[in-house]
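FAQ
Q: What does a multi-component entry look like?
A: The components come first, one per line:
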Amino acid sequence: MAGLGDLLGRAVLWPFVLLARLIDLPLRVWQRWTGIGGMAAVFLAPTLLIFGVFVLVPLGLNFAYAMTGGTGILLGERPFVGFEQYGRLLECEDYTRRLTCREDQFWTAVGNTGVFVIFQVTLMVAVSLITALILNRNIRGRGFFRAVFFFPVLLSPVVVGLIWRWILQRQGLLNLIMVNLGLDPQVWLNDRFYAFAATIGVSTWAHMGFYTLILLAGLQAIPRDLYEAAEMDATPPTRVFRRITLPLLAPNLAVVLVLALIRGVQIFDEVYVLTGGGPGTSTLFLTQYIYEAGFASILRNPGLAAAASILMGAVLVVLTLLQLWLSRRAEGGRVR
Amino acid sequence: MSKVMGFLTARRGHGGRWHWTDVVTWVWLIGGTIIMFGPALWLISSSFKGPAQLAEFPPTLLPYVQELAVVDGYDDPLPLFTATLEDGTTQVLAEVRRVGTNAQMVDPANPETRIDVNIADRTPVRQIGLATDNYVAPLVANDFVRYLWNSVFVTMMATIITLLTNSMAAFALSKYDFRGRNAVMLLIVGTLMVPLSVILVPLYSVVNATGLLNSLWGVILPTVATPTGVFLLRQYMLTIPDELLEAARMDHASEWQIYWRIVLPLAAPALAVLAIFSVVWRWNDFLWPLIVLSRRELYTLQVGLNTYAGELNVQWHYILAMTVVTMIPVVLVFLFLQRFITTGIAGSGIK
Amino acid sequence: MGQITLRGIRKSFSGVDVIHGIDLTIADGELAVFVGPSGCGKSTLLRMIAGLDRPTTGTIEIDGQDVTRTSAAERGLAMVFQSYALYPHMTVRQNLSFGLENTRMPKNDITARVDDAGRMLEIMDLMDRRPTQLSGGQRQRVAIGRAIVRNPTAFLLDEPLSNLDAELRGSMRAELAGLHDRLKTTMIYVTHDQIEAMTLADKIVVLRKGVIEQVDTPLGLYNRPQNLFVAGFIGAPNMNFFNAVAVDGQAELPGGLRVAVPGNGPVTIGIRPQMLHLADPDAPALTGTIRLIEALGAETVVHAAAADGTAMVVVLSGQPALRTGETIRLAFDPDALHVFGADGQRLD
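Then the predicted structure of the entire assembly, as tokens:
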């Protein structure tokens, strides 16, 4: 059996091995010419090329797009409008009333995203912390339950969206449960409040396993003898949690918090499939606004989308820097 | 049996009474298992129900199909019902056709006599069974085989290219000391801050300019540049002793050979983790293919599924079945490689 | 052939000099040992000879050819690394063949060479195993085998025995010596273990802080150390040193014993612990108070304090009747004294 697997592996790898052999000769010549140092450039070239073309160039172009108007996608066809797009996004007659803004949809999206992030991140951190604490107990089948909570993380957002759309529909599973409990069935996704709650619940359902894993890793890194020492001192469990677990888990908690924030601000796929932003605009979030402004709506305006994405990017950069700083601190803490 | 009970009642103390935290733990774990697995199981069960059964409320837990009977004088098998006759007796009859609120039925044992039954007086004879047509029809009649192939192609190509380019870059960044190495590292860290949603518009125009619009390569190439992959591999390659590379250099190996024959095989565990991640990422990608691909025959499964679900006349029986198909590779990954992924995440905090 | 010549080698890492100008010639077929405390630059020197590091200035010649800018692969040398650096994903045979395959040698020749080396090192029955399935000693053999199959002009060995336990180290040392006798190839051997250096070397190069302190045969180093550092470094237990002032060719050891010394002014007088023996009761003697006695059976190691408090160690043969706290009276052959001047250099 092992022989067969080996043979199969070789058959699959064969073209690559051949390619590697062929490429060796020109690279040897290159190496002779530039020395070992020059080879670093060779190894970096493909990645840097792809990074350059598909990340760095777009990043620069983004600013150019945000300064131009019209509906054309080619930069040359687009008239320069300066900061007009930002103005359009940010101008309101009365900043206390959303509808007086020139681009009220943008403000709707910002408001929705803000509320979403606050509730979703809170729920996410709470649920994953509780799950991690429970999984860290001396329970049987820990590996199995860890896998259970991780399962939805792998599902695609489209699948997640559709699964829950099916459960929340008029004749769905949730209404079956409601009826069995003697409650009135609801058309969940047609209700502004329930639809918004559903986006929070579903996205938490889909991603909590990931955060649970990070927290669980943090919990398991806490030395057992600390707990044993506390037990010798007859420390009450709540005090153990507040004085030992929480402080030692703080770096991981911080990383989880910021990561959840970063992901939350960008929420799109599963919500788009679940509610499509509706009913009305009650679950319209920033990324969907950018997508629709740039590509989907009839009056598409790439410049406006670019400007909005730059504003979102600025928030993300701040959050990411925060995360890098926190995770570096977390690493330092572990070494100590 | 006692083992099972021992397992189910395992708790914190060394024997003795149940602590309240034990109750919370098991409620949470069992409830969690139902909430995490339940929706997917419900989806799978529903995907085997016919359209009529899907429209029922309350829904049944398991899929049923109506029993059919071959009746003399009729070419096609006829559906069976339990009918309550005028005299109050019940009898299993086969339906020939429906006229208004009445159904023309026959007794399979006596196909000559037609019996008229009000449709309210009959219930279908059903048994647990699978409506496999939900799967066959979209794959054969619609484009789902095409979508499936597109998804497989994108996933495989993107993963191969990711593994190759990322491991080369990681090799250079972990094993060479050259000027500008820190700058390159910084650049790659920087791109972590540039998620796709921030550069949608200009990336679209770049893909447009390079002629990759409406091509699967337009989906593949921009996703290959994952800083996460470079990081993961670099971190692992740093643990490969430099002496091995030096020994290979003394052994007349070229730098490319060192990469190909020494470092790559030794980085296999990290490559495997990245491969699994990459497969899951690329299989699940939605927003970017949605933007790049506007021709139906190029859709990936995710985009095709969303488009299908967004149509005015939602054909749930097909959508549910195709959702299951979309889920299959990921479930396989979960079943066989879950341990790899969870340790990978716990080790590096990436997703 | 395999003559290696270093001329004016200097090396600095990010501005810090670690090698301060080394000139050295190692003759063809010679087994030269670089020895010195850790951080003395002996490994760096070896890596520069190998071509893995480049000297900042200076030239390296092999058989008269300047190879300073030649890559490691093209110098025709083979190296045995401290960690052995066996490719963990290859079998023993693949490990041995890898270097030969890179030179595009025909398959049959590779097999023949690998088998020869395998027989010589008695590792034929390990050929299909992976390095992780081998014991430390077996790995060591494979690492040496990988060097042998290359048929190099010289072998470079970087602390090759340091990962073995004491017993295995002894037997591998003997095998390495036997191997060198058979192959008659130049070998450069880096170690911090002076027993390895003394037993293996044709020539020992003592290094300290990036400079050569002395180059000589093992016994030459032992008998005539050129400076205080070499005197203290070679020989175990360490040589005893006494500070004294030489006046008119005479100096006084602690306790008043006068000895003849060359030179004038402050000197350091050294004598090896093995060169001291118990003095006759009425003869003049070097005296000390016994602090500790280590009876090893065949010999007895006595730690004592001289009259001025200087610590000294004496190795006496047999099991003399001594007790802690007693005074010990010692005599020695005047020719066994080593005298060093204020600059630490030998006075003769």
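Q: Is there any commentary attached?
A: Sometimes. For this entry: Helices of chain C lie at 42-50, 92-102, 107-121, 136-148, 166-183, 194-200, 218-223, 228-233.
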